[in-house]
Amino acid sequence: EKYGKPIGTGAQCQVYRKDNTVYKVLSEGHELIGALHEGFALATAESLDIPVSNIHGVYTECGHIVMEMDYVSGDTLTELIIKAGEAGDVAAIDAYLDEFVALQVKLHSHPAGGLGNVRNTYATLIKTFPGVSDTLREKLQKLLETLPDGDALCHNDFHPLNVIASNNQYVIIDWDSAMIGNAAGDVAHTYLVCILMDAAIEHVYADFSGKYLQKYLAATNMDRASVEAWLPLHAAFLYVSLRQNPTGDISLLEPFFATI
User: Which of 170, 174, 203, 257 has its CA 20 to 30 A from that of 75?
Assistant: First the structure.
């Protein structure tokens, strides 16, 4: 009651809204450092003129960590794309995809400091991956050693569901995975999530994921091979994280890491 009405549930949190304030109440056992990391990521993005929800505080209450921030009203880009798909409006989906790519390009154009490093963090996560064979774990570790580092601001969960159209701008939410790293890795993650979206709109807009990648590469002159190099790692990460609560057909991710 103190936090208002529930408006969403994440893998590790409950989200409530009261008036124009959102309370992200993290599950028991969640470490304070994780919430502080997301708060710092939001502050970093805001300082770089990237549209985010204003954060008001991170604190502990009744055994739970609470993040308090502004409520962002509007439809997610996923909702807008699906509505356009149901209406058969291919031009609108194209326009949304252009805006989506432009937002990610802007994100990657900012070198940023103070956040964790992608390669270092992933090296630690691979060691603790649940339900992964030792063989696959070893292959992922060896693959990570070959991947380049970088200094771009990477959201690491950038997809249309985490972009909200609000007050004539697109606001990026859910910054808990944001780190500094190679932009190609961030693009690989987004591409894989878009693959899971393809089925919802394929009847009016074929190969949404492929068109996303094509548009990003065209906008940045990034080499496709640099994105493909990161796909096995991010596919394995996504598969493990979504296995308990699948979003789309996660079996589509298996071929990306099955042959490494």
Answer: 203
Measured from the Cβ of residue 99, the count of other Cβ atoms closer than 10 Å reads 16
Tell whether the model's pLDDT for residue 71 goes beyond 80: yes
93-137 pLDDT, tens digit per residue, is 999 999 999 999 999 998 888 888 999 999 999 998 888 899 999
What tokens does 116 get?
Answer: 């964790």
Euclidean distance between CA atoms 239 and 198, whole angstroms: 17
Count the Cβ atoms, other than its own, within 10 Å of residue 103: 19
DSSP string for 114-163: SSPBHHHHHHHHHHT-TT--HHHHHHHHHHHHHS----EEE-SS-SGGGE
- The domain boundary, picked from 15, 42, 70, lies at 70
pLDDT band for 34, please (50, 70, 90 cuts): confident
| Distance (Å, whole) CA 100 – CA 95 | 9
Q: Which two tokens stand for residue 30?
A: 């969640």
Question: Quick check: pTM over 0.85?
Answer: yes
Sole residue written with tokens 């394995």 = 236
